[in-house]
Amino acid sequence: MTARIFLKLTSAVLCLLIVAMVAVDILASRLAASKYIQSLTRELADKSRLLARTYGGELPGMKPEAVRALAQAADARLTLVAPDGRVILDSETPPQRLENHRHRPEIRQALAGAQGASIRRSPTLGVDFLYVAVPVSGYALRLAVPLSEIDQQVNAIRRQMLVAVVLAFLPAVLLAALFARHVSGKLGRIIGYASELAKGNYRARLDRAGGGELGVLGRKLNETGEHLEREHTQLERAERIRKDFVMNVSHELRTPLASIQGYTETLLDGALDDPENNVRFLTIIRQNAERLARLTSDLITLSQIELRTRVFHFASHDVNKLLTDVGDSMRPMAGKKNIPIALDPAPDAGQVYCDGEAAFQVLTNLLDNALKYTLEGGFITVGARPVGDSVEIWVRDTGIGIPAEDLPRLFERFYRVDKARSRELGGTGLGLAIVKHLVHAQGGEVRVQSEAGKGSLFAFTLPSRNLGLATHPGVEPELDAL
Description:
It is built from 11 helices and 12 strands. The protein has helices at residues 2-55, 64-74, 105-111, 147-199, 212-268, 278-306, 319-336, 356-372, 419-424, 431-441, 476-480; strands spanning 77-81, 87-90, 116-121, 128-136, 139-146, 314-318, 341-344, 351-355, 380-387, 390-397, 446-450, 456-463. A 5-stranded antiparallel sheet has the order 2-1-5-4-3, sandwiched between helices. Helix 4 (147-199) packs parallel to helix 5 (212-268). It is rod-shaped, with a radius of gyration of 54 Å.
């Protein structure tokens, strides 16, 4: 992979250098030809004026041999044209064989008293020439050189320039190769890392990200890998939780359903007419149906919270009234077990900003648990106290307590400290999970203190002012991980 990238980058740089060399050659050739023609024009004009000053009036009467000698000395073709355009002298062709030159641009300008110059093909020799003419004693003296000489000079300049450009480009080629190797190495590592991510290897990391744009890309890919790894871990955890949840729900449903089915079949098989057992069987069926109803209700409540479909209606509530209402609703149940519920009110009539129904449900669940696990003759205290910008509400009992090793998992769904006793008391294993999520959803925290045989203290906080959110942001990560 790295070798292919290196070859592609090197080829691209070489192509650019070749294009640059061709462009330099074309531009330099044109510039050199233009400059050389300008220089040669000035040189021919100077030679023409020198001949005019030296030989002036002698030129029209010169013999052909002398004209050829002057042309050879000037290293150019020499032509003398009369004011009417007739060719008087020419170093290459007998004058009588040449046509009238009065329409030649350079001759027209010279006969008008100015220097003239032009480039065109000679009709007699069939070769491109540079013509330069100057006035001399009413005549026009013209010198001409073939452009082939100019091409030779320009080609010589081009060869020299090309050699210089090639020598100048050699370091550039070496630098380009080093740059291509450096970039191809980085790109190769980045592509390799991207391939690892595509294969699902989210733990892989790109080393030596470096600087520049490729370094930024490498660091962003590393961040993407870390994000994908976190999400993958959360998905795996969520999948494990989902499987455990399905298994637990199936188990929780199977037990009461099996009991209902078994006792119903027993009644249908004749026990319905047995006065000693039919009422007992029907009572068991009713108890299991009630257990199913509680389990279904708790599952719906927990699902609404976790899926964020439950709508909370936040408002200010008097915390002491909330404690009183919950205590009054639970006293009939407590009276059956001879367990008094004492109230320890918050000072100064504290206010909590919460969903009244949700707070009532939290306290009811905690009191229900306290009554289930407190023996007859014990007592329960419900109280509240201000804590900073919150109010802490607690439920303390003198029940059987909770072993220390069970405390970290106490608020997990379907987790029971004593599974047999919990089912015997009608617990669904969801009450404390609902408490935790309802409290978090209202911007509070929940805690527990307990010791086996010495009772338990469950406490939670609720804000005393409006947090400005329908759902407290602290609950989002926890719900996402479920």
